[in-house]
# Entry
Amino acid sequence: STEALETQDVRSILSHVHALWIAPGSPYRSMNGALRAIQYARGNDIPLLGTCGGCQHVVIEFARNVLALGDAAHAEYDPYASRLVVTPLSCSLVGQDMDVSLVPGSLSAASYAAHATRERYYCNFGINPEYESSLEVGGLHIVGRDADGESRIFELTGHPFFVATLFVPNLRSSAAAPHPLIIAWLRAAEAE
# Structure
């Protein structure tokens, strides 16, 4: 519960977990609770997979706590904020399948054993391009882009597994053919 993470000690709630999946579902009941969970995973080398809204919140947490942009905001929560790091997409990606190019040598490319993939989306918000270079300099690298060059996958340098995708990998996953990023996240959890 994101509400419990806002009001209680995060370490006592999450100290037993081997991995976190920050899943679609925004707006969360407690944005601050979600951000505290992300910060805990980032700071304690807990494998994290953030997807769709989870990806957006990974970027907000990083902007606030690593880049020191304390007023970094998400347009879904506050569309009139002065520093919108997550903004509405020019058109909805809900239900769309799109190609994503992967940076060679990235954890994501290794997980797919490929340099490109096709993924399904379920979102209306994305990362404001004005903050991409700051994220990169801070260590949250863009390792996947769509055909228009827009950021779709982020990875944190030096972390066992900290990957955020604007798409929803579980939409392309099944028991017979699990998604490569989900497998890689589970393997990182197993190694924890």
